[in-house]
Structure of NH(3)-dependent NAD(+) synthetase:
Amino acid sequence: MIEDYLDKDYKEIAENLSRWIKNKVKESGSDGAVVGLSGGIDSSLTSLLCKKAFPDNTLGLILPCQSNEQDQIDAIAHAEKFEIDYKIIDLKNTYQEFVKSLNLDNLDRFSTSIKNINGDQKLKLALANVKPRLRMAYLYFYANLNNYLVVGTDNRSELKLGYFTKFGDGGIDLAPLANLTKTEVRKTAAELNIADKIINKAPSAGLWEEQKDETELGMSYEEIDKYILTGEAKEETKTKIENLAKKNSHKLELPEMPDF
């Protein structure tokens, strides 16, 4: 039963992770942590772990980019509840200028598969992935400015599937949630009194309007986590998970280099 795998001391897990963050940051010669705050559960938990590690040296960046307004409201409420220093930078204009510079009307010169900007899924995803890469640039700017490390929010479930943007939300220095499935993230967040509204929110990378992780993946985190923790799943789910893991394995590795 998956419940047996989830029977853990999540308060102790949180304490250990905060201690791990503190040690890793100090080992690097850095002074604190910067985290992207999306209003979702992963960033909320990560920012709170950082706050516990560095009460005075944790910065949360709220970086909306044509995003759901409610997510920003939730991110602000979380930061203020736990007294996390935060800064809001709206990336809408930056993103729009970037897209404008692509000269999409002539993009078919470079990709014969593109016929319609609204109908082409490859173009939609390529544009969507610009957003987390812009956020990464801002996170590292403030990390460099303050001698902080960028602490990522990717959890074990996302890392297993490669469900993140390479050099976007995957462009980080530390990944404290890497050993926690989405279900375990929720349980740890509940132990730390993170708002139920955030814990129960449908997971979303916020890449486009009404985008939801589980809809895009075609399976629930409950199914994914059960397979990761117990090895049990419908054959179709197993195949889907392992195919995604194989396809996206490059995201978890250093660039290939010749060995001669």
